[in-house]
């Protein structure tokens, strides 16, 4: 029991008290339910990796979006994290491809451009057939800085760089924005 409480307490946002509550909860629910959680954790860690093309989460070398022949291969939307991609997908208005940076440039945290997937991104744009690159980094200081850095890297290519319209309040985070706002931000995107 101590071990479980300790493991749960390591999760983000879970303090000692919540960890204890969760542990007791797992003891009380039917055994199958508790084991299903354990199985889900094991499966996700053993099978899920990053897509070799776009760095979205994937169960094989190519993710669901990259494998879908219906997606528009001339548009590329750049997001910080796989969960941002999921939020945009749920908004349901974008049919192009994605590139997940796996973070943002954050000098204060010691995160530089080479720790992100910017090199493979530039290579993708160089060899691909993209007409538009949509910057969908978070509207924060670091997100904007990252977006600026990338658009400079892409300036040698003849591709239109746009960004999401600012329906999202500056400083708010993409994953928490609601569907309608994201849909508006996507349709109202502007040239960067
Ligand atoms: Zn992919």
Automatic annotation (TrEMBL):
Keywords: DNA damage, DNA recombination, DNA repair, Metal-binding, Zinc, Zinc-finger
Residues annotated as domain Toprim: 74-169
Gene3D superfamilies found in the cross-reference section: 3.30.60.80, 3.40.1360.10, RecR Domain 1
Domain of life: Bacteria
SUPFAM superfamilies documented for this protein: Recombination protein RecR
BP-aspect Gene Ontology terms: DNA recombination; DNA repair
InterPro entries the UniProt entry points to: DNA_Rcmb_RecR, Rcmb_RecR, Rcmb_RecR_Znf, TOPRIM_dom, TOPRIM_RecR
Zn-finger region bounds: C4-type: 51-66
SMART domains tied to this protein: TOPRIM (SM00493)
Function: May play a role in DNA repair. It seems to be involved in an RecBC-independent recombinational process of DNA repair. It may act with RecF and RecO.
PANTHER family: RECOMBINATION PROTEIN RECR
Family: Belongs to the RecR family.
HAMAP family, sorted: RecR
Protein name according to UniProt: Recombination protein RecR
Protein source organism: Roseimaritima ulvae
Gene name, Swiss-Prot/TrEMBL: recR
């Amino acid at each position: 029991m101590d071990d479980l409480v300790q493991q749960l307490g390591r999760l983000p946002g879970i303090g000692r008290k919540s960890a204890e509550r969760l542990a007791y909860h797992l003891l009380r629910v039917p055994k199958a339910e508790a084991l299903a959680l354990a199985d889900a954790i094991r499966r996700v860690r053993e099978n899920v990796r990053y897509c070799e093309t776009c760095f979205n989460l994937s169960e094989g070398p190519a993710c669901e979006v990259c494998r879908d022949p219906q997606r528009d291969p001339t548009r590329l939307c750049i997001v910080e994290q796989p969960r941002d991609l999921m939020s945009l997908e749920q908004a349901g208005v974008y049919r192009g491809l994605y590139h997940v940076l796996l973070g943002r440039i954050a000098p204060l945290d010691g995160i530089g451009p080479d720790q992100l997937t910017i090199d493979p991104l530039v290579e993708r744009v160089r060899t691909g057939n993209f007409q538009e690159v949509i910057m969908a980094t978070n509207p924060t200081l670091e997100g904007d800085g990252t977006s600026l850095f990338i658009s400079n890297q892409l300036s040698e290519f003849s591709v239109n760089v746009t960004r999401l319209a600012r329906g999202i309040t500056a400083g708010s985070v993409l994953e928490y924005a609601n569907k309608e706002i994201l849909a508006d931000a996507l349709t109202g995107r502007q040239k960067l």
